[in-house]
Amino acid sequence: MSKPPFIRLDGVSKSWGGNRGVERVDLAIDEGEFVVLLGPSGCGKSTTLRMIAGLETPDTGRVVIAGRDMTAEPPAARGLSMVFQSYALFPHLTVADNITFGLSVRRVPRRERQDALAKAVSLTGLTGLEGRKPAALSGGQRQRVALARAIVAGHPICLMDEPLSNLDAKLRHAVRQEIRALQRELGMTVVYVTHDQTEAMGMADRVVLMNGGRVEQADTPDALYLHPDTAFVATFLGSPPMVLMPAESVPERLLPPGTPRDDLAGLDIGIRPEAISLAEPAPHRHRATVRDAEFLGAETLVYLTTGTGEAIARLPGRLTIRAGEPVGIDWAPGAATLFERATGKRLSLPPREHRHAEAGASHGGSAPPRAMGATGHPPHFQTETLP
Amino acid sequence: MEQLATYHRRRQALYGWLLVSPALILLTLFALSPTVATFWASLHSRGTIRRPSAFSGWDNYADLIADPSFATVVGNNLLYAGVTIPASIVIALAMALWANAKIPLRGVVRGAFFTPTMLPMIAAANIWLFFYTPGLGVIDAVTGLFGLPPVNWLGQPQTALWAVIVVTVWKEAGFFMIFYLAALQTIPPDLREAAAVEGAGRITYTRRVLLPLLMPTTAFIFINALINSVKLIDHLFILTKGGPNNASKLVLYWVWEMAFAYFDAPRAAAMTVLVLLVLGLIAVFQFRVLDRRIHYR
Ligand SMILES: Nc1ncnc2c1ncn2[C@@H]1O[C@H](COP(=O)(O)OP(=O)(O)OP(=O)(O)O)[C@@H](O)[C@H]1O
Ligand SMILES: [Mg+2]
Questions:
Q1: Residue A131 sits in which domain range?
Q2: What is the ipTM of this complex?
Q3: Is A47 in the pocket of ligand 1 (CB under 6 A)?
Q4: Does the CB of B207 have a partner CB in chain A at under 8 Å?
Q5: Residues of B numbered 184-203 whose beta carbons fall under 8 angstroms of chain A's beta carbons: which are they?
Q6: Residues near A7 by Cβ (< 8 Å), separated by ≥ 6?
Q7: Which residues of chain B have a pLDDT value below 70?
Q8: Which of A21, A255, A376, B110 has the fewest beta carbons under 10 Å from its own?
């Protein structure tokens, strides 16, 4: 039952002079898992990936792959392949030679090489381009060549550092699906770096959210979204991100059940914009003023000014709403999360923990808390269907 | 429609001619016409006050080839080119690879390699003249430590040409290194990483990725080294003056001698034409054969 993890990082750190790179990262990745390293620029995603690859040697800690301590081994000994952001194709070699470069370096017999090439080429849809040089390919095709080179040797691990960032949005979406399908088909373990959260949420079995060289939280995409461990995770994920407000500023009714009423001073309350509903101002609702509204087609983003700062509500359809209008904002108390302001950590509340455990048990089936938007207060602002 | 297209094509052609005309005029003035004039001169006899120059056909060429010095000088120059070109290219590449690696004092190493290039050839030759001085020079001082007798490197026919070759390689390698260094910096570092992940070690990476990507630079350097092996003779004036007994005489030095020491301009012109012919053939070979095997980015 408890198989040892396929890739394991034990307290891995790396810094350059005073430049902090990665600090004490622990990570366990199972065989066949699709793990995405996500985080803001400079948080150490690439560095972590490069330490798994062996392109960077950790200052402290161990890298264990398939049960072997690989910390000091060169990349070639680790049984992995890598897709670089720049693709790193050899410009003087044809597509076919690029793909089979590793095989020919390892002196794989010609016949086997040809077979592996044919398979990789057809899997990545490069048939007919084998004789071209990289300069004569489009960005998307180059990306496929890099992908084919990564899968041709049949290594069990594939590392990818922002492989889609040079593609246009539409292509990115299609290739995302293809990479995922390819990974499932070949049963590869993939560690994938991106700073694009939709990419991470859409592809990952597990997302490792990093910040300032540390792992902030590693969990399934929905757990990460629904139960953020820290205020950073809460505000990094989702667009627009979770709204944070001082807990004392909101009416007591809106605090999550189990909140320690006497000790609100150091707490922030976090609500997802889609969990917020708008109604007439009333004493039992949080007061706000509409600053602006953005109609995005399927939804409208309403920018609000509260007594303590800014908030965003995300409402379905189109709203008729004017800037400067006073409103009452409302949400299901269960949809809110409390964070300690000083540490950024989530405040564990007994009933919430209970629900968390439940959600964890029936994973994927649990309804997101936004379904609790039915608060019994029918929205005063009518959603209007477009003519 | 048809007319408009023709008009446009003509205009484009006119543009083209206008754009190349400055280069065309300058090249004609300073390269093409002197070449033609030289060739013309080589077909005439040497003029004296009593006997004016007259058309003499290929006589100058026949005389030239019959001259025993011709074989010596051409042989010298072939050896000189055959050693200095590969030696300076290989040393330049090795130094560039070294200076490009992450080593301590990288700046100092690069500077040290590059210094010979900044010296004028005459100054470099003077430095080496001191190195080579029999009995007193640096080389004899070092060999003397091992109890070896002093050697007159520049003064004996067996060693004179080799002594000149060493100076040339020393001077050129640093210059060519700069081109290699520049080319190496344009090679993205992730190619090395990709190669490492694919299992290529240092040597495999160098052989299968680095050298092919440096081929355009190598071709450029090769042509430069080739041209220099014919045209760079400044150091001969300082070091050996072609001696002893023609042992270190190179073609251009000989041409200079014929033209300005013996005032035999037509023969010098004939030799010049032969040199141009050989260089032209090599250029054609370079464009036709080598270029097709080189990957240009
Ligand atoms: N070779 C290096 N020398 C010095 N500092 C480095 C080096 N490589 C990375 N760093 C530093 O380490 C930190 C993490 O860098 P890393 O490349 O891992 O970030 P990242 O999460 O991949 O960011 P991005 O999304 O922008 O690619 C950064 O602060 C960076 O400045
Ligand atoms: Mg990065």
A1: 7-226
A2: 0.79
A3: yes
A4: no
A5: 188, 190-191, 193-201
A6: A27, A28, A29, A52, A63, A64, A65, A157, A189, A191
A7: 1, 295-297
A8: A376
